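Re: the request from the purification team.
They wanted to know what the chain is likely to look like in 3D before they choose a buffer screen. I agreed to run a prediction and write the result into the notebook, where they can find it.
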Amino acid sequence: MLDQFSRTRLLLGADAMEQLKNSRVAVFGIGGVGGYVCEGLVRSGVGHFDLIDDDKVCLTNLNRQIIATRKTVGRYKTEVMKERMTDINPDVEVTVHNCFFLPETADSFRFDDYDYVVDAVDTVTAKIELVMKCREKGVPIISSMGAGNKLDAGAFKVADIYKTTMCPLAKVMRHELKKRGVRKLKVVYSEEKPTRPLEDMSISCRSNCICPPGTQHKCTERRDIPGSVAFVPSVAGLIIAGEVVKDLIRDQR
């Protein structure tokens, strides 16, 4: 019988589709990368999700984030993403967590329940804690490295963190993971040299903040505010989604 996943089933097979339907994926960070991860996974038939982010849609997100429209500005990204996912697949189960993942909040999450974790957060502290929790619980994880200040969507690679080049975030992550005895981590990174953003204070979030009321972690708190375009983080997110699907169904084909 035909259904919304019929075309996918032609390639993956019934057993793989059943595996995806029964899988639970936690996506930490529902931004330019994480939003497209969710999009790719729900359209692939993954049946259960946890979405973690404390951010709200901002006007400056409209240039790159799939959940960002004029109508969604000011709303929690997790809740907008959940609505979109249930519009795509009414049977999907989505649990939202409107919070910022930190070492002190890590124990609030049931990592034992996750079949896969996607790290699409921005801070090194949160990324390291996610890797350590997944290592402790034996949960597979894939991490997104820097997608900001990039213009070449074709420069992304999938690799182990210790085989990455050029990416400044990956360099910091390698150093921190090595100190903690972590010997491998699957990542998506770009080999493109970052472009330096223009120093134009007339459009800077530092002097013209328009974050929605109630935003807990504003751009003005960040050390650097990267530039971004529509076609780079989206590609990174879809590459990650593809890797998650392949890993989840590896034994079913």
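For the purification team: Helices lie at 6-12, 14-21, 34-44, 77-88, 124-137, 168-179, 233-248.
Please add any questions underneath this entry.
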